[in-house]
Amino acid sequence: MADPVDDSAVTPCTLLDGRVQLVQPVDGYRVAIDPVLLAACVPALAQGRVLDVGVGTGAALGCVLARCPEIRGTGLEIYPPHAALARRMLALNSWTERAGVVEGDVTARPAPVPGSAFDWVITNPPYHGPGTVPSDAGRAGAHMEAVPLAQWLAFCVRCLAPQGQVAVVHRADRTGDILAALSAEGKVGALTVIPLWPKPGVAAKRVLITGRKGSRAPLTLHPGVVLHHPDGSFTAEAEQILRGGGGVPKLTDRGAGG
């Protein structure tokens, strides 16, 4: 299949200190640190299959593939130009045998990917309502909550195999909604909330939330990750994730079989 990416409309980018190569639009959606932090929820020794729901240009999926050599992956993306960029990411890193990208909608029936098939589902759901995002189609598509968050997360849970694990990065003010959606009908337990503190003493704007399908283990509040020193430079624990490819500190595997 011919690569549909227009090289004049994209710029190269690297993550994890060069371990992940990707391209992103010159105008529009740009990779931030959220997908790198999301990928750090998956243990480096994880095996099986991971699904990235809303893969975008492939940043989170690429970081998982770089960190977890035994993982095979699938990215799901509704916006065709971003799906093309995610496929380019796989090709640039020689990962086309380990992972692929599916174009599809989480609301579609039949579902674009098989249910109960993935050991891990990671997702960075869109987080703005209509009228609050840039007019650029790519950026708007990445950030606009066109699908209700509860419906998006219900799809993620359906894709998990029994005892599979989910990881979400989102706005801190949606924590209650995320916990309610994941735990609906008792489907996901061992929930862990990981605040992402911008600086010491500053309220978290983002959170990571993980959980395990079928677990009855209780909720845990993680100490969180402080991202920046007061002068704006990254902390050592943030550098360990963003450049070193490490996992989220103190995030243990909870709830297996219970």
UniProtKB/TrEMBL annotation:
Name of the protein in its database record: tRNA1(Val) A37 N6-methylase TrmN6
UniProtKB keywords: Methyltransferase, S-adenosyl-L-methionine, Transferase
Domain Methyltransferase small: 37-133
MF annotations from Gene Ontology: N-methyltransferase activity; nucleic acid binding; S-adenosylmethionine-dependent methyltransferase activity
Superkingdom of origin organism: Bacteria
Organism name: Novispirillum itersonii (Aquaspirillum itersonii)
Record flagged with keyword Manganese: no
GO annotation, biological process: methylation
InterPro entries in UniProt: DNA_methylase_N6_adenine_CS, SAM-dependent_MTases_sf, Small_mtfrase_dom, tRNA_Adenine-N(6)_MTase
